[in-house]
Amino acid sequence: MLGDTPLNSGADAVVIGAGIVGACCAHLLRREGMRVAVVEAGVIAGGATGAGMGHIVVMDDNPAEYELTLYSQRLWAELLPVLPPQVEFDPCGTLWVAADEEEMAGVEAKFASYTMRGMRAEILDGRSVAEAEPALRKGLAGGLLVRGDSVIYAPCATAWFLQGVDVRRGRVVAVTDGGVRLEDGSSLSCEVVVCAAGASSSELFPQLEVRPRKGHLAITDRYPGYVRHQLVELGYLKSAHGHSTESVAFNVQPRKTGQLLIGSSRQYGVTSPAVDRPLLDRMLRRALEYMPGLAQLSVLRTWTGFRPSTPDNMPAIGLCPERENVWFATGHEGLGITTSLGTAHLLVDLVAHRTPVIDPRPFAPERLWRDG
Amino acid sequence: MADVVNVRINGQELEVKAGTTAAVAVFMAGVTCFRRSVTGEVRAPLCGMGVCMECRVTIDGVPHSRSCQTLCVEGMEIRTDG
């Protein structure tokens, strides 16, 4: 990509990582008038950004996560008029699916928490769920339809944020008081370093408690209209926010092409990106429990990716505890597409000594910093 | 085995020799658009050996069936993207 900063001169800010979070941060730092360089060890959007689904979703698991996701969703909505069609924005909404009456109680709680904050949500009974999504199995208890949620193609959004930004291929091996040093021995001087390295963040900052959490996805051929909303089982949060070594949850997303993305799995302690057949089978069997007809569709490809997960499921956004020039924007687990924009706005406000729109304290990196 | 079988292509009745592939039957019916790409381009068989996936049509309600690898049988219902 053509940049606006020559390679050998310094930048005001260096962002480590060209995933969607790094790209958003670079975009906004540049808007502040800073000379920004992004250093990426692999390819643009080649980590969790490219591997994930691209669901823009408000999550209500805890107040801070709710604030960040809601803030981010509003920022996405503001950006919508200028996003190119390649971003494939699809306002399909989310249908949280309740399998039984116990989960229906969860639907009511979720409804209360969403509508209390002025979000649009509708409780659907079993019959309405069947009408809304005929491919779901019969006999489901109901669900919660959240119309404000949407889907995007994150790699294209990332490329859009990086327009006009100087992106350099290289691996940062050290962060110094004056900038960053790359694997090839070169250095880049700058005032501000933003680590947005996702699941790789702890390679550079071993004290930061961000660890990779592997996930699998499958994509089908095109079946337009087969699924209309992003479908997520209500038990998804148990998988996403639990910390068991391995878990799966039903999560199916319609793409604008008519293809379906089928997820999801979560796995700790694995570094190999290879598809884990037994876990993939478990994930697909879970999907079949909710949508038996999926068995008749052809899957074109399966792959894996690594989410940057943290012990409390919240990202690290803010100043590094031990450095005056290093900021973090990482640890977004499976929510980085949604929260990239909110994260970048929050971070850039902090860097510019402005008061952020939402309270930054729950995201302070100190809570993830180990002594040593 | 019968010498001929009757199939329907986009609703049009067609008698073909036994052993004819669905791809050939589609051409015989005068249809040249087997499917449309994601951007709406017309696609038709290319490799004829089940690899390129360009010949996909809906056969007896099953979308994305490879017409070049499917032999016509009596009563087969073939739909293309037109």
Summarize this entry quickly.
With 372 residues, chain A is α/β, with parallel strands linked by helices. Chain A has helices at residues 20-31, 48-51, 63-79, 101-116, 126-132, 154-161, 201-204, 236-241, 277-290, 336-351, and strands at 13-16, 36-40, 55-56, 94-98, 122-125, 142-146, 150-151, 166-169, 172-176, 179-182, 187-189, 192-195, 211-222, 230-233, 246-254, 259-268, 299-309, 316-319, 326-330. Chain A has two domains: 13-50 and 154-210 and 313-368, FAD/NAD(P)-binding domain; 91-150 and 211-309, D-Amino Acid Oxidase, subunit A, domain 2 (D-Amino Acid Oxidase, Chain A, domain 2), CATH 3.30.9.
Task: Note down, in words, how this protein is organized.
The complex is a heterodimer of chains A (372) and B (82). By secondary structure, chain A is an alpha/beta fold. Chain A folds into 2 domains: 13-50 and 154-210 and 313-368, FAD/NAD(P)-binding domain (3-Layer(bba) Sandwich); 91-150 and 211-309, D-Amino Acid Oxidase, subunit A, domain 2 (D-Amino Acid Oxidase, Chain A, domain 2, 2-Layer Sandwich), CATH 3.30.9.10. In chain A, 28% of the residues lie in helices and 27% in strands. Chain A has helices at 20-31, 48-51, 63-79, 101-116, 126-132, 154-161, 201-204, 236-241, 277-290, 336-351, and strands at residues 13-16, 36-40, 55-56, 94-98, 122-125, 142-146, 150-151, 166-169, 172-176, 179-182, 187-189, 192-195, 211-222, 230-233, 246-254, 259-268, 299-309, 316-319, 326-330. Chain A has an 8-stranded mixed beta sheet with strand order 5-6-4-14-15-16-13-17. In chain A, helix 1 links the parallel strand 1 and strand 2. The longest helix of chain A has 17 residues, at 63-79. The two termini of chain A are 39 Å apart. The relative contact order of chain A is 0.20. Mean pLDDT of chain A is 94; it is low at 1-7. Chain B has 82 residues and is mostly beta strands. Chain B has one domain: Roll (Ubiquitin-like (UB roll)). Helices cover 9% and strands 34% of the residues of chain B. Chain B has 1 helix and 7 strands; from the N terminus they run E-E-H-E-E-E-E-E. Chain B has a 5-stranded mixed beta sheet, covered by helices on one side. In chain B, strand 3 (35-36) and strand 4 (42-43) form a beta hairpin. Chain B starts with a strand and ends with a strand. The model of chain B has no long low-confidence stretch (mean pLDDT 95). The chains are: A alpha/beta (372), B mainly beta (82). The A-B interface holds A 221-223, 257-258, 296, 298 and B 38, 62-64.
